[in-house]
Amino acid sequence: MGLISIVTVNFNQHQATLELLKSIEQHYPKANIEIILVDNGSDIDNGALFKTTFPNILYIRSAQNLGFAGGNNLGVKQSSGEYLFFVNNDTEFSAGLLEALSGTLANNPLIGVVSPQINYFDDQTIVQYAGFTRMNYYTCRNHCVGQFETDQGQYRNRICQTGYAHGAAMMVRRDAMDKTGLMAENFFLYYEEMDWCDRIKRAGYEIWINTSATIYHKESLSVGKNSALKEYFMNRNRILFIRRNAKTHQQLFFFLYFITFVTPRNILKYLTSGTPGFVKVLLRAINWNLSHNTNSTDLGYQLK
Predict the structure, then answer these.
(1) How far is CA 16 from the centre of its chain?
(2) Max CA pair span of the chain
(3) Angle, alpha carbons 217-221-226 (nearest 5°)
(4) In 3-state terms, the chain is what percent helix, strand and coil (to 5)?
(5) How many angstroms separate the CA atoms of 176 and 279, rounded?
(6) What is the pLDDT of residues 52-86, one digit of tens each?
(7) For the CA atoms of the chain, what is the radius of gyration?
(8) What is the pTM for the complete model shown?
């Protein structure tokens, strides 16, 4: 296989990142790969630890947290591979992963992005992702195929188109990336890979999945399973995604749907689940979209 650039981003999770690097070394000790680690505004610079333990990595430190897209984009700018494999630092590899994904891209030049099957790390018999359905642009809803199902091989060896790649593990053809451009950094967190996939599709490429390959994901290490940060960006970026990718009539329907159904439903959920402070977070997410254009770099959220 040609040179593969593996790009991963660390934010205050040096132990998880070390475990990822160890799993790559275990499965691909002599492969034609380059590993690019972006330390994305972590409180402590662990560069010496990373480089001492894994001297062959390319280590890049950003003093500022650039978000998911910004951190990955920083790594892309230093990469040389024909294919770029973007992986969360809270994942671990399995045998045959790179061969399966790079082979999929090599066999069909129309494929711009391919993801493997993703299973949860804590219980590797449980599926997290076996593809996405297409987006309903009227509601900004789609379905993650297989999520929470017991893996009994029901999705194995599917090599086919899917609605979207998964940001935790996606291999991208450089030609498609060069034609489309990098991920939009103003998403910061969530929906940026879906926005990227839509742009890649509009550039004439396809999004595929190859479930003969598997990666294991330790989900939600970065932002927690229930946080104001997550709630803000999930809501803000859901609206932003529609503004950037849906047609005008779809946008109008979505805005009505979001204000009349999603907003009161979420407020009721916050009030009954002991998180009333999230009401202000939701309203701030809505207000950002009313007061900012789709390319604004103002996140509207004070990062710690």
Answers:
(1) 17
(2) 56
(3) 115
(4) 40, 20, 40
(5) 40
(6) 999 999 999 999 999 999 999 999 999 999 999 99
(7) 19
(8) 0.94
